[in-house]
Amino acid sequence: xxxxxxxxxxxxxxxxxxxxxxxxxxxxxxxxxxxxxxxxxxxxxxxxxxxxxxxxxxxxxxxxxxxxxxxxxxxxxxxxxxxxxxxxxxxxxxxxxxxxxxxxxxxxxxxxxxxxxxxxxxxxxxxxxxxxxxxxxxxxxxxxxxxxxxxxxxxxxxxxxxxxxxxxxxxxxxxxxxxxxxxxxxxxxxxxxxxxxxxxxxxxxxxxxxxxxxxxxxxxxxxxxxxxxxxxxxxxxxxxxxxxxxxxxxxxxxxxxxxxxxxxxxxxxxxxxxxxxxxxxxxxxxxxxxxxxxxxxxxxxxxxxxxxxxxxxxxxx
Length: 317
Hints:
Blueprint: H1 3-29, E1 36-41, E2 47-52, H2 54-75, H3 88-114, H4 131-147, E3 174-179, H5 181-200, H6 203-218, E4 221-227, E5 230-235, E6 242-246, E7 250-258, E8 267-271, E9 274-278, E10 282-289, E11 294-298, H7 302-316
Parallel strand pairs: 9-11
Antiparallel strand pairs: 1-2, 3-4, 4-5, 5-6, 7-10, 8-9, 10-11
């Protein structure tokens, strides 16, 4: 079994397996589930929202399938571990196991609490049993991480990057773009889940989900420019927020095969002295700053952008 396929199974199956008990109870006791069920609870376990019993199917089947697709798809992306940095693949699979057990355990408690209920607002989650899923979450996360194959070591980054040499009077600039289909898909899912959650459960959850969808969509594209001023990165359709590294602060630029998991996922990342704008797997520009910090951005034709940065820096010295 290949390492990629093993990671796919380890990350994608746990949410489905953890949902099994709730699905079995629903299938066996569907006639005992009232038409209107308690669908939202306070932290004390008291019901404060209701909905149709079809919502229990969504929780028991739809959510685990979505988690399996998201976690499984991300897990097969390549990831490299640099030095003693946290192993991204193991951490991510552990998160999948923990999330699957948390969602599956809470869904099972909700299904059991609603069984034979006559008044949905009188339903109460068994407070004494809530600790069991939380303990299981931690244990499952640790087991999942330990069973995952470790990530390969990141390649040695020693040596200079490519250089595009320019004449004394030559002027040049470069623009590259990149977009992320996982972030676009995630934003679509959030923008769908937000209004549905608001209409059928509570707007206290639906509004944050919708806002998160807009934020993710905003960060799903990037535009990178290189010129005499240095490196500029515009995020989103209007290029806001905008990051800029002046030419005088750049020590070196190189091309790296970027793995999102090595930086904790997609989007704007801050990991171990590195700022990352990571929208996909593949080539990216890695800029080392004179302060010792780094910036990583995934973009089309990264080699040309890095070479021009080095050429402009070399001419300015």
